[in-house]
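Give me C-alpha cells for this 69-residue protein.
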Amino acid sequence: MCTHRSSCPAADSPEARAVTAHVVAAHPEQGWNLLCDGTVVFDDTGELLPDGRVVAPRRVPAGRLVMAA
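Here you go.
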C-alpha cells in the first residue's frame, strides 16, 4: 500500500513498530488516522491492523503522570 520511497514493512511484521508509516487519511475530528500500511491508529494509541486484529492502547500508569501545579 505504501507508495513512498523505502516503503514501510507490513503492519504485522516485527519491524513495523520501528518504522513510522505515513498518514494517508487524517481524521483528527474523529480521533483516528489511516497509515499507508493499512493500519488505523487512534488518538488513545490503540490500533486496528489491516487483518482486523486490535492492538490495545498503551496506558501510562497513574503514578507516572505529571500533575499540573
